[in-house]
Known about the structure:
By secondary structure, the chain is of the alpha/beta class. 38% of the residues lie in helices and 24% in strands. The protein contains four helices and five strands; from the N terminus they run E-H-E-H-E-H-E-E-H. The radius of gyration is 13 Å and the shape is globular. The two termini are 24 Å apart. The mean pLDDT is 91.
Amino acid sequence: MKHSIATLDVAGFDTAIEEGDPILVLFTAPWCTNCRRVGPEASSLAADNPWSLQVAQVVVDDSPDLAERFEIRSIPAALLFKDGRLVQRYQPQQAGELRAAVASELEVA
Length: 109
């Protein structure tokens, strides 16, 4: 079953991270070159992963309050939440890094 990457804003963020399944939130911006490199991998994770992982994004230009709340200083940044708690932060720069990092965290649990 294919899943799309939802775009979160301040209004829906807390509800999204507390829904039960783990969720990976990618902080990004349309002008960010590295974000464009990581985007296809995030889409692949959303479409196919063994962990019931949901994938969402926050566009930092549209939701600067969320970027500030989580002290995002560099993008792309990816935050992994389980049961509403932040369990891991990633700074993916190359293809493959994001899936490997998520696998490492979720396969241990």
